[in-house]
Amino acid sequence: MYASIRRYQALDVEALLRKVEEEFVERLKTVEGFVGYYVIDGGDGTVTSVTVVETEEAVEASTVLAKEWVVERAAHLVTSAPDLTTGEVRVRAER
């Protein structure tokens, strides 16, 4: 299992979250190996997304997809490129 964490500084959190939910989620779900996607509102203009996928190829595909989508559809809602962390999930706990 692999994950990607992207941390953005949003100019308009509500508008960004609405666009993500209405436009990006369905695109991301088309990535082969998609497991889950979560967006966290940090309350201070910080928006963090967590994408979980099955393979390294899928995490790379999701990263490219997110970058392209932000440039094309949401660049006006964020201050700059996100802080990005991707890699293999090494510890996992679920209920």
Q: Can you characterise this structure?
A:
- The chain is an alpha+beta fold and 95 residues long.
- It has a single domain, classed as Alpha-Beta Plaits, CATH 3.30.70.
- Helices cover 37% and strands 32% of the residues.
- The protein contains 2 helices and 4 strands; from the N terminus they run βαββαβ.
- It has helices at 13-28, 56-74; strands at residues 2-9, 34-41, 46-53, 83-88.
- Strands 2-3-1-4 form a 4-stranded antiparallel β-sheet.
- A hairpin with a 4-residue loop joins strand 2 (34-41) and strand 3 (46-53).
- Helix 1 (13-28) packs across helix 2.
- The longest helix has 19 residues, at 56-74.
- The protein is globular, with a radius of gyration of 13 Å.
Q: Which terms summarize this structure?
A:
alpha+beta, Alpha-Beta Plaits, 4 strands, single chain, globular, 2 helices, four-stranded antiparallel β-sheet, 95 residues
